[in-house]
Design brief:
single chain, 222 residues, 9 helices, 76% helix, globular, Hemerythrin-like domain-containing protein, Hemerythrin-like
Length: 222
């Protein structure tokens, strides 16, 4: 039975927005790595955010979400197994990206990457971007119908809370800023509505920080 009558389920909305942030952020790192004016620290922050969040995202799918779907729809096991194999290939690209040395500015570079370092970072970022985009193009036609048909609102709420509780605290403000760019205000609010009040009170400051950092990465501000 399709639980989405008239509007999409919260599970699909949150998953779609998360995927769009991954598409946007991986492309942004490619562009920023090719821009000599972007400081090493800004590149490192975005790189670390991506590595941590992409790993966490697909690990929670493999370990928690796929079993939920398979309980209701065992016939999709082969498709989900294929997606998990793609997760493993993405891990190899993330390993390469994580291995690019970006910490500790050299004395002569003023906090910026030299040409060889930028080239290495950009190549690794391109591999991650392309892997993520290809994977999502394969995953969404399988996952979105499964979320609509087989995951109840209560199951999704519990899964989403587990994801939030276990997300490593690495540049989390960037996720807030990216969500604001890919979702409507109503969609973004639907994700944040159940945040504890002390956390929600920090959202304006986190949005300001994200906007400033994204301007630096795009070369439109300091």
């Amino acid at each position: 039975m399709d639980m989405n009558a008239g509007r999409d389920s919260q599970a699909v909305v949150e998953t779609r927005l998360t995927h769009e942030t991954h598409r946007l952020a991986t492309g942004l790192l490619v562009d920023a790595a090719g821009r000599p004016s972007v400081p090493r620290q800004a590149l490192a922050q975005l790189r670390d955010f991506l590595v941590v969040n992409l790993r966490h995202h697909h690990e929670t799918e493999d370990e928690w979400l796929w079993p939920l779907i398979l309980t209701a729809a065992p016939d999709v096991k082969r498709a989900l197994d294929d997606l998990s194999e793609e997760h493993e290939r993405l891990d190899a690209a993330l390993d390469r990206l994580a291995g690019i040395g970006l910490t500790g500015a050299k004395d002569h570079d003023g906090g910026h990457l030299d040409e060889d370092d930028r080239h290495a970072l950009r190549e690794a970022a391109v591999a991650v971007r392309d892997s993520v985009r290809d994977h999502l193009d394969h995953e969404e036609p399988v996952l979105f119908p499964a979320l609509r048909a087989h995951i109840t609102p209560a199951q999704w709420a519990e899964f989403a809370q587990r994801v939030i509780a276990t997300t490593p605290p690495v540049a989390g403000h960037l996720m807030i800023g990216l969500l604001d760019e890919v979702g409507t205000p109503a969609e973004v609010e639907s994700i944040f509505v159940n945040m504890p009040a002390p956390v929600k009170s920090l959202l304006p400051a986190l949005r300001d920080q994200a906007a400033a950092d994204l301007r630096v990465l795009r070369g439109t501000g300091s």
